[in-house]
Design goal:
By secondary structure, the chain is an alpha/beta fold. Helices cover about 40% and strands about 15% of the residues. The chain is built from 33 helices and 27 strands. Helix 29 links the parallel strand 26 and strand 27.
């Protein structure tokens, strides 16, 4: 059915084929399941040797870095898998031309080690918000990753064992099946940010030399026929290495470079490991072999690097002096290190690892997610507005239900802000970009016939004709199981979609029936001629209005879903009434006011003129009543802005209405306002009311479709006249935190992401 999905794997800038990405790929590449799995490799000696060892089938899925095939696979891939960074899979040049790609596809970060000591700086919103899954192998670290790295719960996947352990266990068994004399001891050093021409580096050098020059160590190695291998990081230049060699008192001390060594071989064949802050301590402990932590520079290290653990715990499990390390080696007082042991599974299943079952487990998870991808179609998901926020909120609810979700926009007007983490954002064209490809899209494809069904859209003049052509082409080959249209003009595109991957088409009716013909001319007549299998309405009242006004019932099944709110746009229940704190946990001083400050979120467009006049009318009423302690801050923008500002000044109500520009995240603005005061006469759904209440604010609004739907059972919100609104504002000081929390609970029971997510998933799977 259609083209196969494409996955692209890479590691260490494509320079190696000996880590997690390679062994994951090697385990699954030969599966015939509708997913083509490619790995990108740099054409170096080591990778050529790996390539020669592969079967013909496996070779066909190797992509050499910076070839035309690499570019093609990268651009068409559905998912990326990396072990170090996104640069593991991105092309960097084509011929003489350098390239610079941004990640715009879901990325699975496999890691190149087990986190437990040194902190990394990756964030949940990293890679342009495309960090879809971040794998961890330390059973205890998930809460830390959520707190320190700001990952969402659904972004984190417990892999149990890194993929490369399939090879580590095999090599360990093979090596130790052969008899060998003496002990092999490996000293593996990791990177230090402070290294350079400074006293801290000089101190470290002395500590290392103190170990290597120990006569006690030399005597032990000679006596026991043991080998002491020092694996140096590439930060050590040849001059320093020569200094180390001169210190050694026996030729049983060997020196190797980590970047010139197969680390898996070293881990497999050595009996004792000495390390500092490296995750290889976990690799060694998995093999049930002793690890000695030697951290002579702990204080200096902490000056440049944060930890995932408590310093005291490290100090209890490590040595800081050269003499202590030498004594532990020579006296053989080392054992399984409790620091690493406590973070691994209690029982290590070697047969499970050697069979690759841990990789198969990950693969089944990610392939199922890939094949159940959901795509939402919309106008501009990068912007603001009720439909935009509602769709992003529903997308986050699906992400929390383990779905892969894409928002596909006709255009993009700004960089994404405060998006749900791990959400794939795709725009057919970027309206403000000066990149050549975007200029071509907007400039060359100007024939109005390309608009297609966008002729039925009132915002057609704000779109490039390219958008219509590109949407049609996209839906011919889209690799999503479920596609959901959130805009009435896009319903027609979805109906025409011919991709064989689409199993479910869903039509979301956000627009109120009262305005649908004004915003989408002739759209209802055209929708009556298409086969709408599943429809979604945000309110029963709006569904009934479509029925009463147009006799529109051209759907086989429907759901009245409502709307919900993104996590970034609401507060926690326990924060209502609590003292506000900033990110540094310091109390924020909010200036005291002697007047009521309301907030109104408004799309300032021509079709909202009646709502704007209602706001102006209230301000004039306050002026007539000589009220001077009420101000309404208005946030929003649109094509009616100049007229709106003229109305404020022409009616001399600038003391009552303050235009504050637009805001992408009203949550931050609501903190400084007493309540949300809404003058909208006809909300198809009361999204601003949900947003206000889930931010711990009171709402005052007109009676309309949205307020009747959302505020049912919540007292004191709906006003019937300007006098009634003024009376409610005067009584605002009587509103208690308990009442605001009660309102919060009532909304959450019906419109939380968890509730709506379950409801929508049931509808998808029906």
């Amino acid at each position: 059915m259609g083209r196969n999905f494409i996955w692209l794997f890479g590691e260490n800038l494509a320079a190696t084929s000996n880590n997690n990405s390679y062994y994951f790929w090697k385990q699954v590449v030969r599966r015939r399941d509708g997913i083509d799995k490619y790995i990108v490799l740099e054409k170096n000696a080591a990778n050529k040797e790996t390539y020669a060892s592969l079967s013909d089938k496996e070779k066909s899925f190797v992509v050499w870095k910076n070839t035309v095939k690499h570019f093609k696979i990268y651009l068409n891939a559905d998912m990326y898998f990396v072990s170090l960074s996104y640069k593991d899979i991105t092309p960097t040049k084509l011929g003489f031309f350098k390239t610079d790609f941004f990640i715009e596809k879901p990325l699975i970060y496999l890691q190149h080690g087990t986190l437990g000591i040194k902190a990394i700086e990756y964030k949940g919103y990293g890679y342009n918000n495309n960090m879809f899954r971040f794998l961890y192998y330390n059973k205890n670290i998930k809460p830390t990753l959520m707190d320190y790295n700001k990952f969402k719960d659904y972004q984190l996947y417990y892999g149990i064992y890194p993929p490369r352990y399939i090879e580590l266990v095999k090599r360990h068994k093979a090596y130790h099946a052969q008899p060998h004399n003496g002990k092999n001891i490996l000293w593996f050093m990791t990177w230090r940010e402070y290294l350079g021409d400074n006293y801290m580096t000089q101190m470290l050098m002395h500590q290392i030399k103190g170990v290597l020059s120990s006569q006690k160590l030399a005597d032990y190695l000679d006596k026991t026929n043991s080998v002491f291998t020092v694996c140096l990081h590439q930060f050590f230049d040849e001059e320093k290495i020569e200094e180390f060699k001169e210190c050694a008192k026996t030729d049983r001390i060997k020196f190797i470079h980590s970047h010139k060594t197969d680390v898996l071989d070293e881990l497999a064949k050595n009996d004792v490991l000495i390390t500092d802050y490296s995750s290889v301590g976990f690799d060694f402990t998995v093999l049930n072999k002793p690890v000695i932590l030697y951290q002579p520079d702990l204080k200096n290290y902490l000056a440049k690097r944060n930890l995932y653990c408590e310093v005291e715990e490290l100090e209890q499990c490590s040595y800081t002096k050269a003499r202590q390390l030498v004594d532990a080696i020579a006296d053989e007082t080392y054992t399984i290190n409790p620091f690493f042991k406590s973070r691994l599974p209690e029982e290590i299943d070697y047969d499970f690892i050697e069979s690759g079952a841990h990789i198969d487990r990950m693969y089944e998870e990610f392939s199922a997610i890939q094949k159940n991808k959901v795509t939402f179609l919309g106008y501009n998901f990068y912007g603001v507005g009720g439909t935009v926020f509602a769709t992003r909120s529903l997308a986050e609810a699906l992400l929390e239900k383990n779905y892969l979700v894409e928002l596909l926009s006709l255009k993009c007007t700004a960089k994404p802000k405060e998006m749900p983490y791990g959400l794939q954002l795709t725009a057919l064209y970027k309206a403000n970009s000066r990149r050549k490809i975007e200029l071509l899209k907007r400039g060359f494809f100007r024939w109005k016939g390309l608009y297609g069904h966008l002729d039925c859209d009132c915002s057609r003049q704000n779109l490039s004709p390219y958008a219509g052509m590109a949407m049609r082409k996209k839906l011919e080959n889209i690799n999503s199981k479920t596609v959901i249209s959130t805009r009435e003009s896009l319903h027609l595109f979805l109906n025409d979609a011919t991709s064989e991957k689409i199993e479910e088409k869903i039509y979301f009716f956000h627009c109120t029936a009262a305005l649908v013909n004004e915003l989408f001319p002739d759209i209802v007549n055209k929708m009556e001629k298409i086969d709408i299998g599943k429809a979604v309405f945000v309110s029963e009242e709006n569904r009934q209005l479509y029925l009463d006004k147009f006799n529109f019932k051209n759907y086989k099944d429907y759901i009245v879903l409502g709307n919900t709110l993104e996590s970034s746009r609401s507060v926690a229940r326990e924060d209502i009434g609590a003292e506000e704190e900033d990110d540094n946990k310091k109390k924020v001083d909010v200036p005291e006011r002697d007047y009521f400050l309301g907030m109104y979120l408004l799309r300032i467009s021509h079709e909202r003129e009646a709502d704007i006049n209602n706001l102006i009318g209230f301000a004039k009423y306050l002026k007539e009543q000589n009220v001077d302690d009420i101000v309404i801050d208005v946030y929003g923008t649109g094509d009616y802005l100049n007229e709106f500002l003229d109305k404020i000044f022409d009616n001399e109500v600038e003391d009552y209405i303050c235009y504050c520009g637009e805001t992408s995240n009203p949550k931050n603005q609501m903190k400084n306002h007493d309540a949300v005061v809404d003058f909208t006469l006809n909300h198809s759904f009361g999204m601003p009311y949900i947003e206000a209440i889930l931010n711990g604010k009171m709402v005052y609004c007109t009676e309309n479709t949205g307020s009747r739907e959302v505020l049912n059972g919540i007292d004191g919100c709906i006003y019937t006249s300007y006098a009634d609104l003024l009376d409610k504002i005067r009584k605002f000081p009587q509103v208690t935190d308990d009442q605001l929390r009660s309102n919060y609970d009532k909304i959450s029971k019906v419109y939380s992401r968890e509730v709506l997510g379950e409801k929508f998933v049931d509808f998808l799977e029906k």
